[in-house]
UniProtKB/TrEMBL annotation:
A 1,2-diacyl-sn-glycero-3-phospho-(1D-myo-inositol) binds at K68, Q69, E70, K71, K287. This is NF2, moesin-ezrin-radixin like (MERLIN) tumor suppressor b. It comes from Cyclopterus lumpus. The gene is nf2b. It is found in: Cell membrane. Pfam families: ERM_C, ERM_helical, FERM_C, FERM_M, FERM_N. GO terms for molecular function: actin binding.
Length: 592
């Protein structure tokens, strides 16, 4: 057997794991793939077109490195693990995020990376700016603030502030949440992409934003320094201060950058200035510094040239997309506002309806009381009439007795004298009974007249209540009618037969009853008039609200149709519920 036959067959693919700021992806790559092949695959998967800001970073020994595009992946110092892990991160940062970041996915990836750097304290941020940035992060995650939905404690699981800021002040988590929520409530109406852009616009003004720091020494004196590389140029810092550089070299003032093993040389454009040299501990770090310098310088020069056709197209598409989304948000905001106004109007109408139903119930109760009073008056008038008839019958009997006594008095003088005496007494009694009978008849006539007036007032009150009910149809039709009260008892018949019983009916009782009837009748008429006025006013308001609602619906439909580009057919709403409510309410008032 030959030696070649003993060799293991080499695999044609290898596994790669790519971690972005919000996802993890695994790919199967060919052995011959270069770094550009893997990078392009990741960008296509993410949907990223602004690729010049990003790179694939991996860890090597005690530092990190960026995957080179022109070399094969397996030929570089990548980890030998399976799968090989890469981090898809922003390698270069823009000078002005609002002008350079075009795609929404690009803005989102930058937002997540900068937010993580601030929370990990890789970028220094003051407490005030941290709270403001946290409020924009909450707006991007939760949308508009709603006190009914966002109850206290809804941010308990979110990491929003650096630990240094939390330890700097003796404040509880609830107090920090209250401060963040106060700013968060003011961002109402800002979309997610706008909130993330506002976050980046604030973050780009921080001193450590977009700066990559490296430990260096100056000359052979081993003076410890820090080198910062960002979109503006190169900066030299003291080790204990990363905020204010001691010396800066802008890209526009650098003529050449080179390194030889561990020595790094910066040659200014002005030949009169001294050449700056520094040393790093590893050759790998020098390569990384040079790689970042070349990339940042290329982007620096690119920003000062006319945008390419691809970038112009991307910006035009992004502008159209933003305009479209803005219009959709405005339409949704208007629809939401109209819906809220309709809900408030509905609640007000329901409140008014309940109020009018209560008033109608009180009016019905007053009507029932007046009917009961009229029935009582009729009964008393009937009793008075019967008493008058009984008195008249007794007067007739007394007259007959008197006549018999006169006949008997003719027999004897004594009997005559006695009969005369009895006759005088009978005459006196007859006169009294006649007077009492006439008085009772007058009282009966007066009660009949009061009864007639009470019935007329009752009839007029029923007619007005029926008219009020008919005028409130638009409001009553929207809601179910109250249950119909029982039919009032019919007025008793006045044709009662005479009985032998006699009732004691005083004049003061009749007067007091008449005064009570008159007072209740006046109160009932006044309440009925007040109810009628309120029902008329409510009818006018309901008609205006219906007209406004139809106009609002027509405005919403027209706005939607303009956004979509077509004209919909008219939509007719069913009125079955309204008709059923109206018929039940009318049946109730017809029974009354």
């Amino acid at each position: 057997m030959s030696i070649l036959g003993l060799k293991k067959k080499q695999p044609k693919t290898f596994k790669v794991k790519v971690i972005t700021m919000d996802a993890e992806m695994e790919f199967s790559c060919e052995v011959k793939w270069k770094g550009k092949d893997l990078f392009d695959l990741v960008c296509r998967t993410v949907g990223l077109r602004e690729t010049w800001f990003f790179g694939l970073r991996y860890t090597v020994k005690d530092t990190y490195a960026w995957l080179k595009q022109e070399k094969r992946v397996l030929d570089q110092e990548v980890p030998k693990d399976s799968p090989i892990t890469f981090h898809f991160l922003a390698k270069f940062f823009p000078e002005k995020v609002e002008e350079e970041l075009v795609q929404e996915i690009t803005q989102h990836l930058f937002f997540l990376q900068v937010k993580k750097q601030i929370l990990d304290e890789e970028i220094f941020c003051s407490p005030e700016a941290s709270v403001l940035l946290a409020s924009y992060a909450v707006q991007a995650k939760y949308g508009d603030y709603d006190p009914n939905f966002h109850k206290p404690g809804f941010l308990a699981q979110d990491e929003l502030l650096p630990k240094r800021v939390l330890m700097q002040y003796q404040m509880t988590a609830d107090m920090w949440e209250e401060k963040i929520t106060a700013w968060y409530a003011e961002h109402r109406g800002i979309a997610r992409d706008e909130a993330e852009m506002e976050y980046l616009k604030i973050a780009q003004d921080l001193e450590m934003y977009g700066v990559s720091y490296f430990a260096i020494t100056q000359n052979k004196r081993d003076t410890d320094l820090l080198l910062g590389v960002d979109a503006q140029g190169l900066h030299i810092y003291n080790p204990n201060s990363k905020l204010n550089p001691n010396k800066s070299f802008p890209w526009s003032g650098i003529r050449n950058i080179s390194y030889s093993e561990k020595e790094f040389t910066i040659k200014p454009l002005d030949k009169k200035k001294d050449v700056f040299k520094f040393y790093s501990s590893q050759l790998r770090v020098n390569k990384l510094i040079l790689q970042l310098c070349i990339g940042n310088h290329d982007l620096f020069m690119r920003r000062r040239k006319v945008d390419s056709i691809e970038v112009q197209q991307m910006k035009a598409q992004a502008k159209e997309e933003k305009a479209r989304k803005k219009m959709e948000r405005q339409i949704l905001a208007r629809e939401k506002q109209m819906r809220e106004e309709a809900e408030r109007a509905k609640e007000e109408m329901e409140r008014r309806l309940f109020q009018l139903q209560d008033e109608a119930r009180l009016a019905n109760e007053a009507l029932l009381r007046s009917e009961e009073t009229a029935d009582l008056l009729a009964e008393k008038a009937q009793i008075a009439e019967e008493e008058a008839k009984l008195l008249a019958h007794k007067a007739a009997d007394a007259e007959q007795d008197r006549q018999r006594l006169e006949v008997t008095a003719m027999k004897t003088k004594e009997e005559k004298r006695q009969m005369e005496q009895k006759m005088r007494e009978a005459e006196q009694l007859a006169v009294k009974l006649v007077e009492q009978s006439e008085r009772r008849l007058k009282e009966a006539d007066h009660l009949k007249q009061d009864l007639t007036e009470a019935k007329d007032a009752e009839r007029r009150a029923k007619q007005k209540l029926l008219e009020i009910t008919k005028t409130t149809y638009p409001l009553i039709a929207a809601y179910s009618a109250p249950p119909a009260p029982p039919a009032p008892p019919e007025a008793p018949d006045f044709a009662y037969e005479s009985t032998s019983s006699r009732l004691d009916f005083k004049d003061s009782d009749m007067k007091r009853l008449s005064m009570e009837i008159e007072r209740e009748r006046l109160e009932y008429m006044e309440k009925s008039k007040h109810l009628q006025d309120q029902l008329k006013e409510l009818k006018t308001e309901i008609e205006s609200l219906k007209l406004e609602e139809q106009q609002q619906q027509a405005g919403v439909y027209s706005l939607r149709n303009e956004a979509r580009g077509y004209v919909p057919e008219p939509v007719y709403l069913p009125h079955s519920n309204r008709n059923s409510a109206y018929m039940s309410q009318m049946a109730f008032f017809e029974e009354v």
